[in-house]
Design goal:
Keywords: DNA-binding, Phosphoprotein, Transcription, Transcription regulation
Number of helices: 11
Number of strands: 5
GO molecular function, one term: DNA binding
Shape: globular
Radius of gyration: 18 Å
Organism: Streptomyces badius
Protein name: DNA-binding response regulator
Structural class: alpha/beta
Length: 221
């Protein structure tokens, strides 16, 4: 059973989410929060598997709430729910530690699939959309003259093959594409990805993509 906390300042939105989730045999709603402060407190109290986190809420917004939940060491995963798929705040949500995001007008089956994916430790954002989002965001990252990728300990811990795979993950390749282009079995790719996440401390694939950008393994087109 996947436990879910709904954080949204709109009562009707929370009601709609609850009705959908409680129609599923494998999901249950453990609570509702109307702002970020309530969400943080309720995560500490209920330890939900997933939080559906709105961005714009009164007081503490969803981005800072996400940051505080992740900083607390909770195993809870955050799924950002935003109005627009290119909302600039979604970038900050991903960097704060969210496992992905969906738009509020997503189809019910897309939302349910997203929750299940996040609960299983996967990322929700499709590789191509991840690339589009980060390409837009990375232009705002500071450029540090002389910055070398090899100076980051998270990268130096990787083998040459793992570094290669992290690079193409950052370029938006799926496991199937990596396997085909690098002539590897898909099971081997999955093993490499698991090791990359473990060595770098990335929570999921989305965070691995952000790492690839931050360390300049990947640069925007």
């Amino acid at each position: 059973m996947t436990t879910v906390l709904i954080a949204d300042d709109q009562p009707m939105q929370r009601f709609g989410f609850r009705m959908l989730l409680e129609s599923q045999d494998d999901m249950t709603v453990v609570g509702e929060a109307s702002n970020g402060t309530e969400a943080v407190h309720m995560v500490a109290r209920h330890h939900p598997d997933v939080v559906l986190m709105d961005i714009r809420m009164p007081g503490l917004d969803g981005i800072e709430a996400t940051r505080r939940v992740i900083a607390s060491g909770a195993r809870t995963r955050i799924l950002i729910v935003t109005t627009f798929d290119l909302d600039e705040y979604a970038y900050d949500g991903l960097r704060a530690g969210a496992s992905g995001f969906l738009v509020k007008d997503a189809l019910p089956e897309e939302l349910l699939a997203g929750i299940r994916a996040v609960a299983a430790g996967d990322a929700v954002v499709a590789p191509t959309l991840t690339r589009r989002l980060l390409d837009a965001y990375v232009h705002h990252l500071p450029v540090v003259p002389g910055t070398r990728v090899t100076s980051d300990p998270r990268i130096t811990a990787l083998t040459e093959r793992e570094r290669e795979i992290l690079t193409v993950i950052g370029q938006g390749w799926s496991n199937t594409e990596i396997a085909a282009r690098l002539h590897l079995a898909e099971s081997t790719v999955k093993t490499h990805v698991t090791r990359i996440l473990a060595k770098t401390g990335a929570r999921d694939r989305v965070q691995a993509v952000i790492l690839a950008y931050d360390t300049r393994l990947v640069t925007p087109l």
